[in-house]
Write a structure and sequence with these properties.
alpha+beta, 4 strands
């Protein structure tokens, strides 16, 4: 099995792992104007992908 010629520096390791950093909860605005999580039904109006799928929870 091949072995690396040099030790991987701390900077290289940290650069590689930087893309895994937690970026927080991503939200989008629904058509009704309420924030919602992507690929989920809107809790305030009950719509998904431009159509009504459930009754509004209010």
């Amino acid at each position: 099995m091949a072995q690396p010629k040099r030790k991987t520096s701390k900077m290289k390791k940290r650069q590689r792992k930087a893309s895994y950093a937690w970026k927080g909860i991503q939200t989008q605005l629904c058509d009704c104007g309420a924030p919602r999580v992507p690929h989920r039904v809107c809790a305030s109006c009950g719509s998904y992908n431009g159509r009504q799928v459930i009754e509004a929870g209010n």
